[in-house]
Amino acid sequence: MHEHDLLTDASIRPASRRKGWIAALVVAALLALLLAAGTGRRAKPYRQVARYPIAKQTRDALMTHDASRMLGALGILPCADGFCLREAEYLFVLRDWATGEERWRVTTPTPRMTATGPYRWNRAFAPAVSPDGRVLAAALADDARLRVHTWRDGRQQGEANIALSALLGNPIRSSPVMAPVMVAGLTACAMDDGRSFVTLHIAQTAYLLLIDAGGVSARYAGAGEIRLAPDGASAVVDNARLVKLAVQGATIRLTDEVWLPVDQGNWYACAGGTAVSDAGHIYRLAGQPTLPEKGWQVATITTSKRFALAYRAQQSRVLEVATGQSWTIDVPRENYSGDATEDGQHLLATFHAGVRGYIALYRHPGRLLAWMRLDQLEVNSWWPSPDGRSVALTTAQECLLYRY
After folding, report:
1. pTM for the full model?
2. Which residue of 32, 38, 275, 279 is most buried, as measured by CB atoms within 10 A?
3. Do residues 226 and 207 make contact, with C-beta atoms less than 8 angstroms apart?
């Protein structure tokens, strides 16, 4: 199907003759934009390859493109080797981008909490997958203990069993007159090398633990909310400071801090000692910041945190975090978010033409390669493969894999 059909489908033609000439001009203008972007070549339609069940937690993930990209919050995460899908509450499967075939599957242990224990967990389970898709980590509550399990390619690699009293330095015993100690903010970050970081708050103190096959190898205790970069080299603390993580023996130190502007929304720790804000500002531990023009909004950051997708009005932009370099395209109209691919050379744009929603894939510097009409699908999220050839969609019922 030619890209002309993308905007001349009968379903988006006006019913009124009186307005027909206006609609024709609009369609012609939109077609001109697409042809300019695609240099007149044929774009290919995405076709459905497979469909998969999803967990209730995945169906309920309404923040479909949280730039922090936490597997526990989204239920699906694009990786280099495939997409990791939460198909049941404690079942995670990595599927191949081209065929959807299973690469590995892991059923994690379940958290355990008692009503009479000395601790109360506000989040008892935190899964994470590495950017390459080979390492899965799961941090979970076990009453007065924290357990962290790791797997590589579906085979268990290690388990850390940590008594919370050991982190606090003193045992806490339950008492009818003593309020339980709150454990909050449990998160996990899996890295390609098989190690993982875990963060949690106990009694107003933030703990950052580095986990390897032998258990906890280093730790930090202090104040602040910690958001980690996927390479484990830096973090954003309290949405106000970009810091370097330095492992010295059994201690993690936060060094080389750079203060971040407080008026730029959320800040996300990215690869290479950088941080990106909702407004597209980039600050670095070394080097000058990159400050874009006003009006841009960061929609997504790739799993490796190397590229970001920003948009404003009818423009979408792929931003390379390390250098601040970018490329920009114009999309037809009603631009609403999108995504960048891990190679930084492709952009997935989402927009409306008439009453229909569309997804379109562009390659740098702006050639239209493929498209998909969403029809009646109530799509919660869309995730492109590293080369853009495949797209995994989640709806309220299932995950759908498409490929061109």
Report:
1. 0.87
2. 275
3. no
